[in-house]
Amino acid sequence: MKKYFTALLVVCSVLSFSANYLFDLVEQLAGVRDFVVDFDLTAEIKQNGENRIFYTSCLLVVRNLEDFYFLVKKPDFLSNLSFMYLSRIKRLVFGTGTSQDFETIDIPTVYIVQSVLSALRLLQTPLVGVRSEDGYLVLTFSKLVAQQVEEPIKVRLEIRDSQLKSIEILSPSEEEKISVKINKLVLNARTDDYFQLPR
After folding, report:
1. Which end of the chain is less crowded, N or C, counting CB atoms within 10 A of the terminal residue's CB?
2. C-alpha dist (Å) from residue 121 to 72, 116, 139, 169
3. What is the pTM for the complete model shown?
């Protein structure tokens, strides 16, 4: 009986330890309306039986959860391609450093923000299981959620010092994955400099 109690105590400690990292992260992000994130995205996919790798390096700036600035830094043939959306005037500015154009368009940023917030809230429910594995927090979905999707995915988060360092989304076989490595994340950042309209 004592062995079972000790094993239960160890399992509960591990689960609460990994859940604490996730709750710390969600708490840190709660209420943040301005942020800058510099990240690398790598997609490893199978296409016609071959493994293909796509890599890009980007910068995303969000102001007041309404305005968005997105800059592609790599690959070289796309470098300096940028998109800036100003929600109040419904203007999308796009182009490269010297050549820019704009379009008046209504992008429903409210729905994008609500989707992200809903996903963060979902992480705090029993629908998502959290466990620690090789320095990552692994999110798995309950059977109820898994039954609703064609191919259930696995999500791994690397969190160090209450900072999100990387996200991996893996196929069930783990042969295909999308990795986002966060090089720099600044919460409550000064973002106005990124949203200057060309004159």
Report:
1. C
2. 29, 9, 14, 18
3. 0.76
